[in-house]
Amino acid sequence: MPSNAPFLLVEGNADDCSLIERAFHDAPPYVRFQRLSDCEEAMAYLEGEGPYTDRKKYPLPKVVLLDLDFTMPGSFAFLKWLRADKRNNHRLLPTLVISSSAEPRDINYAYELGTNAYLTKPADYQDFTEQLRALALFWGKFAEIPQLSEP
């Protein structure tokens, strides 16, 4: 049975976020989103700090979708922080990078930092929607996700 844990979407661009949310509009009910606009907010969410202390309202995510946006500072630093966290096992959290960059150095570096998958945003909306639906099906229904400890 798929988990009800949300996908944590870390996306600073409101237009891209709208595209992603629209692509998931017809997703099964077990695919939910918690959108955060930057990496600092994502760290607070994962640590259960500030407004995110209520785990019933803000449960640990099933998957992190991280926009590798060079206008949003800290994307690579967030990956480093996430994979270095031994206290809460956040390093085990499946993390998928979504980026408009297809530069091999960006892709390689994201994998070096421990991302589980790197997806390049296609220019065509229909292709992007198809890509995201496949992602939701695989990570939302079929993939076994590690059990994380609470902060």
What is the structure about, briefly put?
It is built from 5 helices and 5 strands, in the order E-H-E-H-E-H-E-H-E-H. The chain has 151 residues and is α/β, with parallel strands linked by helices.
Task: Write out key terms for the chains shown.
single chain, 151 residues, alpha/beta, Rossmann fold, five-stranded parallel β-sheet, 5 helices, 37% helix
The radius of gyration computed from the alpha-carbon positions, rounded to a whole number of angstroms, is 14 Å
Number of folding domains?
1
Number of helices: 5
CATH hierarchy, class: Alpha Beta
Specify the structural class: alpha/beta
- The largest beta-sheet arranges its strands as 2-1-3-4-5
State the order of secondary-structure elements, H for helix, E for strand: EHEHEHEHEH
Q: Estimate the helix proportion, in percent.
A: 25-40%
Question: Could you state the CATH homologous superfamily?
Answer: Response regulator
| Structural shape | globular
Overall mean pLDDT: 84
Characterize the main sheet: 5 strands, parallel
What is the architecture at the second tier of CATH?
3-Layer(aba) Sandwich
Q: Catalogue the unreliable spans.
A: none
Quaternary state reads single chain
Number of strands: 5
Termini separation comes to 25 Å
CATH fold call: Rossmann fold
Proportion in β-strands = 5-15%
